[in-house]
Amino acid sequence: MYAVIKTGGKQYKVAAGEKIKVEQITADVGQEIVIDQVLAVGNGAELKVGAPLVDGASVQATVVSHGRHDKVRIFKMRRRKHYQKRQGHRQNYTELLISAVVA
């Protein structure tokens, strides 16, 4: 059984036992959280799609860790104008272990 969830403005396809990295969630390491924004639930060939959310569906997950992604380097340049700008960014994330998909 799998589900499509929405968190942090993004959508993720998850199943029980998977680890995913999502936008940072304010929760402690080891804490059990419930994600109730489930857009679709599938089991084999059947698929139940919500409009926009599936009623009564949720995903239970455990917070494994918090961290930061690799640095993304931004470089802007205008040719022949003596303009160069360098910038970097590291996005925070929360790693979740999906324990159950409840339909």
TrEMBL record:
Tell me the SUPFAM superfamilies matching this sequence: L21p-like
Keywords per UniProt: Ribonucleoprotein, Ribosomal protein, RNA-binding, rRNA-binding
Which Pfam families does the record match to this protein?
A: Ribosomal_L21p
Q: Which domain of life is it from?
A: Bacteria
User: InterPro entries annotated for this entry?
Assistant: bL21-like (IPR028909), bL21-like_sf (IPR036164), Ribosomal_bL21 (IPR001787), Ribosomal_bL21_CS (IPR018258)
Q: Which residues cross the membrane?
A: none
- What is the annotated quaternary arrangement, including any partners? Part of the 50S ribosomal subunit. Contacts protein L20.
Indicate what this protein is called per its UniProt record.
Large ribosomal subunit protein bL21
Q: What is the lineage of its organism?
A: Bacteria, Pseudomonadati, Pseudomonadota, Betaproteobacteria, Burkholderiales
